Amino acid sequence: xxAFLDVLASGPQALVTDHGRAGNAHLGVPxxxxxxxxxxxxxxxxxxxxxxTAGLELLGGGLRVRARGPRLVAVTGAPAxxxxxxxxxxxxxxxxxxxxxxxxxxxxxxxxxxxxxVAGGLDVPAALGSRSTDLLSGLGPEPVADGDALxxxxxxxxxxxxxxxxxxxxxATIRLRVRxxxxxxxxxxxGAALAGPVWTVSPTGNRIGVRLDGPAPPxxxxxxxxxxxxxxxxxxxxxAPPDGPPVVFLADHxxxxxxxxxxxxxxxxxxxxxxxxxxxxxxxTVDA
Amino acid sequence: MEPVARPCxxxxxxxxxxxxxxxxxxxxxxxxxxxxxxxxxxxAARTVLVEVSAGASLDRVREAAAAxxxxxxxxxxxxxxTIGVVYDGxxxxxxxxxxxxxxxxxxxxxxxxxxTVDFCGFAPGFGYLSGLPEPLRQPRLESSRxxxxxxxxxxxxxxxxxxxxxxxxxxxxxGRTDTVLFDPAADRPALxxxxxxxxxxxx
Lengths: 288, 203
Prior knowledge:
The structure holds 2 protein chains of 2 kinds.
Chain A: E1 3-9, E2 13-17, H1 37-47, E3 55-59, E4 63-68, E5 71-77, E6 82-84, E7 87-88, E8 94-97, E9 102-105, E10 113-118, E11 149-152, E12 173-180, H2 190-195, E13 199-201, E14 209-213, E15 231-232, E16 237-239, E17 247-249, E18 256-257, E19 261-265, H3 270-274, E20 281-287
Parallel strand pairs in A: 12-20
Antiparallel strand pairs in A: 1-4, 1-11, 2-3, 3-10, 4-9, 5-8, 5-10, 6-7, 6-9, 12-19, 13-14, 13-20, 14-17, 15-18, 16-17, 16-19
Chain B: E1 4-7, E2 12-16, H1 20-33, E3 38-43, E4 47-52, H2 59-66, E5 80-85, H3 92-99, H4 103-112, E6 114-120, E7 127-130, E8 145-148, E9 152-156, E10 159-162, E11 167-169, E12 172-176, E13 197-202
Parallel strand pairs in B: 5-13
Antiparallel strand pairs in B: 1-2, 2-4, 3-4, 6-7, 6-13, 7-10, 8-11, 9-10, 9-12
């Protein structure tokens, strides 16, 4: 029998996500995929899914779904209250949702993005090998809307044995390791320009990128008015537009850009930024 | 040839060269090396980005790029696509006036040239097509349109383009096509890939 999650309330933003569609940048296709990959991967491990099985990425929680067919689920990422038919069940471990029961995920107590893994995964059509919704290019399924019926794939078990999983809140100040380049030579002392200030996460951030409010890195005099022909960017690129604060690009970033990239954030640190609420403090540590 | 290799995080290098021919040569050389660690190979106007899998060394990528030979003539040897165009774009008269020629001459010039897909970017399936005749090399519009319809054929700088889907855009629009440039459900979603050739045909 086929199983579904019937969406009663989709919350601020619910997107199908997986490991994305990297390898297509030469076609202009962003990598996309879960922003907090460790949290997303943990969810799949908890319910016994193969790595990269499609689940949901919930910005600010707020999801309510009714299970059609009993399923094992796990809620990970930003810690948020989880209820099954009104009963608190907790996050970061596997939970059984009986047929017809309502699973409710509240607003995170810290952090921004909550992940829902469902045993069997979400069986929506793939585009270029991925079921992720890409907000920049519109690839993948539409954002989840109230009234959607999300098909759930077959699952045969077994229920994995997992010990307790530590749950952590984002630190008060987020530290991002950054390597200078490829265009650090467009700036006077790029390392100091990044490492000096305490940056603030702008409220305009999304899956494409996060703007960091603070002093614009000063340009070398000889680059003023100069245009950079468009060039490819990697995830984590810190792009510094003229006279504006830098933007750190996340998974749905444009594949090319025409403003100089002053440095690139270590991919291992990007989940911290993906979980940073607007107003959070950020500091860069410049790697040699 | 010794392209400048600029660091791009721990897993990628941005090779900087001086011409589209050299870009194509670096792409061809890295591809020919058949390195399994390469995860992205992205040409642009004057650069090539090469990314490798986590933990892999970039040494072999460096060696492969250094062996690039621009004299080998790798540019524009890909598949030839013919795209039918109705030349009734909103900016056709502007383009003609800027070039100091008639609209008919703009159409004759644009449809008479053969183009090469130098690189893709901006949106899935959006190719930057070089080979634009000199009078049509014109700047972007001073302000972008919030919504350019899918299939719009435009020109800007030294490139022509076809918008794969409705999007904002600042290129001067000279026509439209019903050719599908990007179909995510297809085996080959993007019609145009770097190195392909394109001709526009008057419809």
